């Protein structure tokens, strides 16, 4: 498994397909996704956090995507997982731990001790996976559309 920097122009179709799949799984539809806004945002984040915006590849083929950054939340600097995604056929095979370990290394390199992500309440599978990693639910946001989850940055890999 390899983590490669995202070239938004070159990999436009792949990142849009992955993002659409996330919207579909999380919200039942990708209709509310603004593709051009997402691509603009991803380009800016890829420039700001080149080691945080990654395509996950197996034998050169994209199988997932990670979007990691550092931001302020309620007066604290935290790590943030914007996207933690593996295609369905690559789930439940241990690859999620590789993504998690990459994220922990990214956050440790930025001296981050706490990280957050948001997940749709309907995405029970993802919530169970995040809880298995030690994350906790911190409450609903966006009128119940998402749950914020928090975790501690491990000093070791799983």
UniProtKB/TrEMBL annotation:
Keywords: Transferase. GO terms for molecular function: acyltransferase activity, transferring groups other than amino-acyl groups. Residues 1-154 form the N-acetyltransferase domain. Pfam families: Acetyltransf_1. Coiled coil: none annotated. It comes from the Bacteria. SUPFAM superfamilies: Acyl-CoA N-acyltransferases (Nat) (SSF55729). Gene3D superfamilies: 3.40.630.30. This is GNAT family N-acetyltransferase. It comes from Salimicrobium jeotgali.
């Amino acid at each position: 498994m390899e983590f490669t920097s995202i070239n938004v122009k070159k990999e436009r179709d792949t990142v849009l397909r992955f993002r659409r799949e996330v919207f579909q799984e999380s919200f039942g539809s990708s209709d509310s996704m603004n593709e051009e806004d997402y691509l603009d945002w991803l380009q800016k984040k890829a420039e700001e956090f080149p080691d945080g915006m990654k395509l996950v590849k197996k034998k050169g083929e994209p199988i997932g995507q990670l979007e990691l950054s550092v931001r302020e939340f309620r007066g604290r600097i935290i790590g943030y997982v914007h996207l933690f995604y593996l295609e369905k056929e690559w789930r439940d095979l241990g690859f999620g731990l590789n993504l998690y370990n990459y994220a922990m290394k990214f956050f440790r390199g930025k001296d981050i001790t706490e990280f957050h992500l948001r997940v749709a309440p309907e995405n029970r599978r993802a919530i169970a996976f995040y809880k298995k990693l030690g994350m906790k639910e911190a409450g609903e946001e966006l009128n119940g559309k998402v749950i914020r989850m928090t975790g501690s940055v491990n000093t070791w890999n799983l």
